[in-house]
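User: I'm new to structure prediction. If I give you an amino acid sequence, what do you actually give back? Let's try with this one:
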Amino acid sequence: MNLSVVIPTLNAASRLPATLAALADADEIVIADSGSNDGTVTLAAACGARVVAAPSGRGPQLIAGARAACNAWLLFLHADTVLEPGWRNEVDRFMALPEHAKVAATFRFALDDDSPFARQLEAVVARRSRWFGLAYGDQGLLIHRDFYAGLGGFRPWPLMEDVDFVRRIGRGRLLVFRTAARTSAERWRRDGWRRRSARNLGCLALYFAGVPPHIIQRLYG
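Assistant: Good question. You get back a string of structure tokens that encode the predicted 3D arrangement of the chain. For your 221 residues, that looks like this:
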């Protein structure tokens, strides 16, 4: 099965090497970059990834990356997220089943931090993914190109594009892999675990209240 990994980047040179190293089994890696000036583009090209220029904002970046990808299956992944060893075996088993052409999958959320706060947050995300089918972009998303297109793809939003898209997939059509996608906890360590989690919850509440994403972005930065 042919698989394209799509990664949106903006000044991601410090985290990207580990992400790309874990993707050695990918058939294609597409970097959708929106103007990095820290060597991200050079680094990505040197690692064998194909780089495409994209407008700013994660939604437009994901759209551009999906359009540039060559393969039938798309795996959307953040630049600071490292897939655990063995991820390709689980992905291949998923893609091999014809009925999964209209089902998507995400990875188990994990953080690169040993604190109790990290374990608590991982447990919360696991329940959210299982009960409500709400997986965020830092868990990755595997989907067949035709299913992606049939759902209308990502919207060109600066944030909340991940929640919007998985809601269109629906809880019953979103599976969670056993393999973990280990994401950088830098944002939580920098902002504070409770403060950062409250900020994320606030964004989600505003989204469900119907506040436009560009306004949410202005409110939360």
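You can read the tokens as a compact description of the fold. Here is one thing that stands out. The longest helix spans residues 116-132.
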